[in-house]
């Protein structure tokens, strides 16, 4: 196995609490990669010899971003819907059906190319792990196709047949739930790790969501939930009651929702690019963090509610608009995402972890929020290789 020494790292974020909370930051550091993994981290002058070496000139190195929530398998865009929103038309879940119609029409090649394009954008911006959902097919064949495409790009595939009730089932939502829990689940189960439901007025109610998520659990999928995005509702409590990994959005929360998240350890996924793009109030990250809830930041990249692939944008918004500290925001975009996906091998740079990392054209991770909109990621490594 060949080894590579990355040296002259001005600031290295390890996310190793043994090296100091919250980020385990080391100054004037070095890191050795062996094969696809981190073999050693420490002070530059203590670094062991390696087969090759790269001098990073004092740049900062951070764990690659773990984007725990994205919808990348779709066709077309909704730029007109966005423009209308900016002059006052509110966001509604109904726009999903526009993308469903375009996605069903698209070829496999076009959908695969779209995912590839967005994953490339993400990698350029430092993302090394991304969760990818279905949810714009909403037929047995189209959902299975979306997940077969998604699994070409990630292990973190999520079955979201319960995104909205498609137009052809408008008069028979119960019939659609039977498809989602029956033949559609059978067709996708081997291609998905996770099952998700959009629990919201206009999408799925509590009873429907429980039936769908528990059917998925019986097939070995692990639950995650779109919860409390457009108003208070049962999503967070349901996620906590059934042992979901994550409740994402969390924009409208009651005190009881916060207590449930804190006591069950369900990760709250905050998706501030959505509030930015729908001009909505941001979730109250401080209230969650101060209550001891584990918070992940993710893009939710999708053509409707927020079409950004940029974790650095999410960090900047989390700091500026949600009052997270730069350290909290970086932790949530890396280790928090890993917690959301129940991964211990990513989101940290400690011996034995995957060598997934981003090199910043800056002296510290603080610049991610301090210099919003500037492409600071100069190199991304996944599994020890530059991409
Ligand atoms: O996470 N909330 C539901 N789904 C997406 C939006 C999908 C769309 O508008 O196309 C979301 O925001
Ligand atoms: Fe989403």
UniProtKB/TrEMBL annotation:
Q: Which residues form the Amidohydrolase-related domain?
A: 61-366
Q: Which reaction does it catalyse?
A: 4-imidazolone-5-propanoate + H2O = N-formimidoyl-L-glutamate
Cofactor binding comment, as recorded: Binds 1 zinc or iron ion per subunit.
Binding residues annotated for Zn(2+), in chain numbering: 69, 71, 226, 300
* Keywords of this entry: Cytoplasm, Histidine metabolism, Hydrolase, Iron, Metal-binding, Zinc
The EC designation for this entry is 3.5.2.7
Instruction: Please list the cofactors this protein needs.
Output: Zn(2+); Fe(3+)
Q: Which GO terms describe its molecular function?
A: imidazolonepropionase activity; iron ion binding; zinc ion binding
Q: Where in the cell is it found?
A: Cytoplasm
- Which pathway does the record list? Amino-acid degradation; L-histidine degradation into L-glutamate; N-formimidoyl-L-glutamate from L-histidine: step 3/3
One GO biological process from the UniProt record? L-histidine catabolic process to glutamate and formamide
Q: Which residues bind Fe(3+)?
A: 69, 71, 226, 300
Q: Which residues bind 4-imidazolone-5-propanoate?
A: 78, 136, 163, 229, 305
| Superkingdom to which the source organism belongs | Bacteria
Question: According to its UniProt entry, what is the function of this protein?
Answer: Catalyzes the hydrolytic cleavage of the carbon-nitrogen bond in imidazolone-5-propanoate to yield N-formimidoyl-L-glutamate. It is the third step in the universal histidine degradation pathway.
Q: Return the similarity comment.
A: Belongs to the metallo-dependent hydrolases superfamily. HutI family.
Query: Could you identify this protein by its name?
Result: Imidazolonepropionase
Q: Which organism is it from?
A: Kribbella turkmenica
Gene that specifies this protein:
hutI
């Amino acid at each position: 196995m060949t080894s590579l020494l990355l040296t002259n790292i001005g600031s290295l974020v390890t996310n190793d609490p043994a090296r100091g909370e919250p980020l385990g930051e080391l100054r004037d550091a070095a890191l050795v990669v062996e094969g696809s993994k981190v073999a050693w981290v420490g002070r530059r002058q203590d670094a062991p010899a390696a087969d090759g070496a790269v001098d990073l000139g004092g740049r900062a190195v951070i764990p690659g971003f773990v984007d725990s929530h994205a919808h990348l398998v779709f066709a077309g865009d909704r730029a007109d819907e966005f423009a209308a929103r900016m002059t006052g038309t509110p966001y509604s879940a109904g726009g999903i059906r526009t993308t469903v119609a375009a996605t069903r029409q698209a070829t496999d090649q076009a959908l695969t190319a779209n995912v590839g394009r967005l994953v490339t954008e993400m990698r350029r911006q430092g993302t090394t792990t991304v969760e990818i959902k279905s949810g714009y097919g909403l037929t047995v064949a189209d959902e299975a196709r979306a997940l077969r495409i998604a699994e070409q790009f990630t292990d973190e595939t999520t079955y979201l047949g319960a995104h909205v009730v498609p137009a052809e089932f408008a008069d028979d939502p119960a019939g659609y739930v039977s498809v989602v829990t029956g033949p559609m689940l059978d067709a996708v189960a081997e291609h998905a790790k996770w099952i998700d439901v959009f629990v919201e007025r206009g999408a799925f109610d509590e009873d429907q969501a429980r039936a769908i998520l528990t059917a998925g659990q019986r097939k070995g999928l692990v639950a995650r939930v779109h919860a409390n995005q457009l108003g208070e509702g049962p999503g967070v409590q349901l996620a906590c009651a059934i042992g979901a990994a994550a409740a994402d959005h969390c924009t409208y929360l009651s005190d009881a929702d916060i207590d449930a998240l804190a006591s069950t350890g369900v990760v709250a996924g905050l998706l501030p690019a959505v509030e930015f793009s729908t001009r909505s109030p941001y979730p109250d990250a401080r209230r969650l963090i101060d209550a001891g809830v584990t918070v992940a930041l993710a893009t939710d990249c999708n053509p409707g509610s927020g079409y950004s692939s940029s974790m650095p944008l999410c960090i900047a918004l989390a700091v500026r608009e949600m009052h997270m500290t730069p350290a909290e925001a970086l932790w949530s975009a890396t280790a928090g995402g890993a917690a959301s996906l129940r991964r211990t091998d990513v989101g940290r740079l400690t011996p034995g972890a995957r060598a997934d990392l981003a090199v910043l054209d800056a002296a510290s991770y603080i610049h991610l929020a301090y210099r919003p909109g500037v492409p600071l990621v100069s190199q991304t490594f996944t599994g020890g290789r530059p991409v």
